[in-house]
Recover the amino acids of this structure.
């Protein structure tokens, strides 16, 4: 289970850049008057994109901006693992360890990260290039095990492919996000398990004239049987 606490060391203050301030105001304007608190997640995300993590002053700044109690913004920031509560390295590797990923071998993916980076969950490499984090369901269980590297999802990973992914990021040449086994989107792994037959409806090929004749013959036979009864 991932532990969610604010960092002990915090900056003195936070303020959005002019660009982000304008974007924040645009986001808030999307909500009806009195419902500006609904913008809390996008604004926390904006603060994180600015500093790469969510600081306590940023939480207070957003609370004031949205006219919310600080505790309510803090609740949101500490609930979602998408918000980094500590500074992170240049690449933030987030490994999902929830049930579907566990059943599909995330322990090997975690081991590959630890072997390659020399850090455990919550750790940042000495050169500041990588932070390794544990997350609870990345929302892509069907392609488990899943690792998010910042905004990109890498799927169907195992020990070897995870190691190769880290090597590629280190070399400045990360692969395209998606499945490491080449499966398309969320299609079934391996052979197709459903829709294996021609889905063309059979009624279009039916001989309606013959069916009508058969129906009328059956009706006629039933009528005669009734007369003779
Ligand atoms: S359990 Fe890993 S993505 Fe859902």
């Amino acid at each position: 289970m991932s532990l969610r606490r604010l960092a002990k060391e915090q900056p003195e203050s936070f303020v959005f850049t002019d660009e982000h301030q304008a974007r924040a105001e645009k986001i808030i304007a999307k909500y009806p008057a009195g419902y500006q608190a609904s913008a809390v997640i996008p604004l926390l995300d904006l603060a994180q994109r600015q500093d790469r993590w969510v600081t306590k002053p940023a939480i207070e700044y957003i609370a004031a901006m949205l006219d919310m109690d600080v505790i309510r913004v803090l609740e949101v920031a500490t609930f979602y693992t998408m918000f980094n509560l500590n500074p992170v390295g240049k690449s933030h590797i987030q490994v999902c360890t929830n049930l579907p990923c566990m059943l599909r071998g995330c322990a090997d993916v975690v081991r590959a990260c630890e072997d390659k980076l020399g850090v455990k969950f919550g750790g940042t490499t000495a050169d500041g290039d990588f932070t390794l984090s544990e997350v609870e369901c990345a929302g892509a269980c069907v392609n488990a095990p899943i690792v998010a590297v910042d905004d990109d999802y890498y799927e169907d990973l195992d020990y070897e492919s995870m190691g190769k992914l880290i090597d590629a990021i280190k070399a400045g040449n990360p692969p395209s996000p998606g499945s490491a086994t080449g499966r398309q989107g969320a299609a079934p792994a391996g052979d197709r398990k459903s829709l294996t037959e021609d889905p063309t409806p059979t009624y279009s090929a039916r001989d309606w004239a013959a069916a009508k004749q058969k129906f009328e013959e059956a009706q006629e036979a039933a009528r005669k049987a009734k007369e003779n009864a």
User: Anything to note?
Assistant: Helices lie at 18-28, 40-51, 56-66, 70-79, 99-103, 106-117, 159-170, 208-227. The chain has a mean pLDDT of 93. The pocket of FE2/S2 (inorganic) cluster is lined by residues 96, 98-101, 137-141, 144, 146 (CB under 6 Å). The longest helix spans residues 208-227.
